Amino acid sequence: MKRPVIAIGLDAADPVMLENWMSQGHLKNLRRLREQGAFTHLDTFDYYRAETPWTTFLTGCSPEKTGYWAPVKLQEGTYDVEEVNAYDFSEFPPFYALGEKYRVAVFDMPQSALSDEVNGVQVLAWGAHSPLTPSHSQPAQLLDELISKHGEHPTLNKDNANTMDVDALTRLKKNMEIGISRRAAICQDLLQRDNWDLFLTIFGETHSAGHYLWHLSETTDHPLYESVGSQYKGDALLEIFEAIDNAIGEILTKAPKDANVVVFAAHGMGSNVMDLPSMVFLPELMYRFSFPGKFGLARGKAGTNPGAPITGERAKKCWLRALWNLKYDSPIKMFLRANLPLKVFNRLESLFGLRQEPDLVSPFDLLEQSEPQYFQPALWYRPFWSQMKAFALPSYSEGYVRINLQGREPNGIVAPSEYNAVCNELSELLYGLKDGRSGKPMVQKIMRTRQSAIDSDPKLPDADLVIIWQDDYTTDVVDSGDLGRIGPVPFHRTGSHRARGFLLAQGPDFPADSDLPVGHALDLAPTILDLMGANIPEHCEGKSMVCRAVAGSFV
Q1: pTM of the model
Q2: Quick one: fold of 5-272+497-554?
Q3: Mind listing the pLDDT tens digit for each residue in 220-271?
Q4: How far apart are CA 197 and CA 2, in angstroms?
Q5: Where are the domains of the chain?
Q6: Quick check: 394 and 81 in contact, CB under 8 A?
Q7: Which among 41, 38, 68 is positioned nearest to 53, based on CA atoms?
Q8: Is 166 exposed, middle or buried (CB count within 10 Å of its CB: 0-12, 13-18, 19+)?
């Protein structure tokens, strides 16, 4: 039967954390929905887990099918990286592009595009985390109207803060709460404008809070909690989720009584186990692998006590500067770089001809060159990529390694006949990588994206190897038996993604306090379409989770 659907996404909200909080009596509206409806966990892809979930949700297709792997891409035939932003939807449109038969309202869906096949309203990039799409709407004047009436989101494209600076994090949290309140008001406004078959909105604040406020919650057990997070009197992460829970309650007061309500996340969050391994350790390992005996960043002394995490004033002011100060050089240059203003050091280095060529390029030089990915340490090594056997690509989640292959790269040095041998050698090296504090292995799994060196399917990712790191502990220093110690380095974002999501559904089609079978993120779009009474496109790889109810469970 065709019924209206209210779909509310909690971007990167972790199901394990939500269940713990609900069991403790928090999140009253989500608890009520859970008690009156159905709940289940969702599996999702354990690779490219930060970059692809929204495209998977919107298209119902895996990244292998769409060919969309990340918002940054290596330009074919070069060593240049470009931002490509969101998937273009030319092959697979958003699932809610249903034509005239269905009335649809989409508010602040990230990484989407306006579609002429939506009969209703669309507002994009009002306040989403990493929207990867312009701030615009259909009708065109609607976004300006909503902003004039309800206000802008204070953290659009600036939902970050230095994780060492509790005052800055507190300001970020307050601005998120303003955005949450305004989002609730806008959603209530839009819900009353028409009888929608589908109303879809996403709370991006859950994503931002997970990345930057994770260590401001004692329950998350992050290494920075004791020295930094404990300065915050409360639980910042829970407070954001409580604000969102209240907002959901307000939104649902305007929902039709016969609506099915779906609250979901396509991926989750945990203590950050990926940023430093993918962004810092991996590029440095590839550099040392290609140039034995040389060091780029953070040369440490294996076998010694790493000491306390880096939390000094320099790290509090700027993570990039604190990391760049660890560039390996002569002792006098390392001392001067760490103690002089950057402009003064650069002037002295230039004046006395102390800069070696080629050299790592600083993030501040990249910023002056208008490189949008200046904060990605992988790009600091780009002057050497053409001389390396393999190099790390910029990443927001797993580690990505590209083989410098003859015939594919402009100055490839690895012959196709050596491709598998180099992949094997790198895999052995990476599987031997250990946490410098506990001695535990750093790598859970390494995936090869190509069957052979000549595999040139244009829908394959840029990486030849995808390194899936362990997700049990967070570290700032690693040891390689072959290449030495890297770190300690300053911590960056304190939360990172997990390959798990959830679906919570309440309404006429879901009996109270029931459980659904474990599904997959690919099942979200088919489930919403099925609840609407709409056809599920053949290209969707998932299936509807709307099942027949029996005795408080689903079969």
Answers
A1: 0.94
A2: Alkaline Phosphatase, subunit A (3.40.720)
A3: 789 999 999 999 999 999 999 999 999 999 999 999 999 999 999 999 999 9
A4: 8
A5: 5-272+497-554, 275-308+357-492
A6: yes
A7: 68
A8: buried
